[in-house]
Structures are given as C-alpha cells and as structure tokens.
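We recall that each integer encodes one residue's backbone shape. We quote one record:
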Amino acid sequence: MQAMNGKQLQRAGLQSALDAMADTPVVAINGARQVGKSTLAQQLWASNGGQFVTLDDAAQRDAARADPRGFVERNNEGPLIIDEVQRAPELFRAIKAAVDRDRRPGRFVLTGSTRLLSQPGFADALVGRVEVVELWPLSQGELRETTDRFVDIVFDGVPSWTTSNITRQQLIGTLLAGGFPEAISRPANRRAAWFDSYLATLTQTVIRDLTGIERLAEMPRIIRLCAARSGLELNVTNFANELTLPPRTLDGYLASLANLFVVQLIPAWSTNVSKKVIRRPKLVMVDSGLAARLVGLTAESAALPTAPLGPLLESFVAMELRKHLSWSQHGTTLWHFRDRDGIEVDFVLERPDGTVVGIEVKASSAVSTRDTKGLRYLAERLGERFVAGVVL
C-alpha cells in the first residue's frame, strides 16, 4: 500500500511479491529511492509477521556488517525483511548459507535502491534462490485504482478504443506530476521544492554512498542533460563531448544512473527486417515529473507550441509500458526501432514467441497517415508476427 492524501493505494507489485514469497526463499524488491519500497515491505511484514529492519539505521547497519551470519539468523519465525540491503553487501553470502540450510519459501525479503543484480556478490550468492520484483513510480492505473493491462490486452487484439476525454492541459499536468508518491501527494505549487530536494539528496548522498563515482560534482549536470535528452536516442560520443568527458567515463556514469533507477536505456530492436538498423539505445528518465523539473518546464511553458512536449510524452509512455511489463504474464520485452533510411517506430513490444506490437507516440491532437509509416513498414515485413500497430 502507499498513502496518498490519507488514502491507501494498492501497489501492483504487492501481488507479485506475495506470489514470489509463496515459492521462493528470497524476494528482492528493487526500485529508486522514494518509490514506496519500504512501504511495500512493511505491508508484507504486516501480512506475514517476522521481523523488519532497515539498514538506513546506523546501528542495524553496523550489526549486519560486523556479524552477517548472526544478523540473518536472528529470526526464524516468519520472514526477515531487510530494507536497503545494499548498504551491507556482507549479508549476501550469509543469506545464501541460511537458505542452503533451509529453503523454505519467503524466508527473506530484501529491498534495494540500486539494481541488486548488479551488486558485487549478489547474483553469485543468490542465483536460483531469489526473485526480483521491480517497483517503479506509481503508474496511472495505480493512481486511478484500476488494473494496467495494456501490454497484455494489445496482443490479444486491439479492442474498440474509446476517445479520451483528457484535455491537453490535463495531460501536461500528468506529465509534470510524475509518479513519485510524495511529489504527487503535494499541491502542484510545492512539487518543485520536492524535486529539488530529491535531486540534491540523490547527487550529494545516494550516488556517493552507493556507487564508486569519484567526480560527484559532475552528476547534477549529467542528470540535467539526461533530462534534456530524455526520449531521444543516446549518442554517447556527442553527449560526452558536450560534457567534455571521455565516452567511456560517461558510459560508467550512465550505467550507475540506470542501476539507481534514475534513467532507463531502451535497447534498439535488432531484427532481419532491415540491414540498416540503428543500434543506439533510447535514453529515458524514469520519472517525467523529475525530468520536467530538471528542464524547467511548468504548466504554462509546457503549453507553448515550442515546448519540448513530444520527447517528454514519449519518455512518460516508455515508463508506463515498462511498469506494465513488471506484472505482465508473458515475458514481453520493450525495444525501439530506427534504420538509416529514417524508418522508425517509437516502441516495439515483443513476446518470446516472436509476435510484435508497434507503438507510435504523438503529442499532437490528430493522427495522420504519416504517423503510421513505421508501423506499416513493420507490418509488411513481419507478416503474421505483427499483431498490432498503435498510435497513442
């Protein structure tokens, strides 16, 4: 659950975590700071008993580092829920040993603000013993207390869509609000202060504590440039030149920001439909509200014809799709497609059986045949593999 204006919202990740606890010894809940991981973990604690500890607490963190085995064996009744486990990587081997002695499902629930599978020792210690549940900023379905099933539904045949009654100004408000629970719960005129504080904490504390990055002074500028390029293909060389950094150094910074769930890289879809495919990933900020704040967009400026609304909207859609994938039942993957002839599709959804859905995102209020050019290209070359093309 997540409190919003005194009301408890059901997180889609709750059921995924409960399902994992029913048959897997270790469940890891991964996501950015302030997306609700601790709240979800506490909900699991209330449902299953056991013990809840947070390694944000210095005394608990010191105890975990000093005696990892004793720490993980402190409670045998119900799950041991360890919040922000990446702060004591010494625990990973101790958890492995405990699980190898007793493989009961749901023994440990771990939360982490960095991608745990990228942490030294985590994957090696817990492979075959852990299921990872990703928690993102709130989806639009979670906010409206409905079930987000677009990714699954669209493969079953495009339903008869109804015309949206959302106005352009309402859409802009949605983009500027983003999905962080704390930001959304504030009045619109107080969100800027929250985003500024979030960025300061991220760059001054979280990145310093959780990564090996040395030149921390560069990070605010890098994150702001990521926001300015959100929704666009990532040309590392051009980006690095703008920052006067070596491309390899920038690659390391971007990898750290991805591991901290600040940005996501949508890989290029490589297939035999074109020999001229562009293989660069698409960069998106995880939260549209934070991205808008970083580039200085307001409700007034975003409504101007010159506002960079298209890339922001594309980033927003990318992350809504990414959230849906977290609870999709079919192992669907998310890509983008562009070739050197200029044929492009903003997003490609692909199932393990090779079936494909193409999605185009437009900030305009009307759709033209030009907007379906890339979708028709894929349909012609994929044949029966191409299930549907959608223009949002």
Observations:
- The chain has a mean pLDDT of 90.
- The radius of gyration is 22 Å.
- The chain has 18 helices and 14 strands.
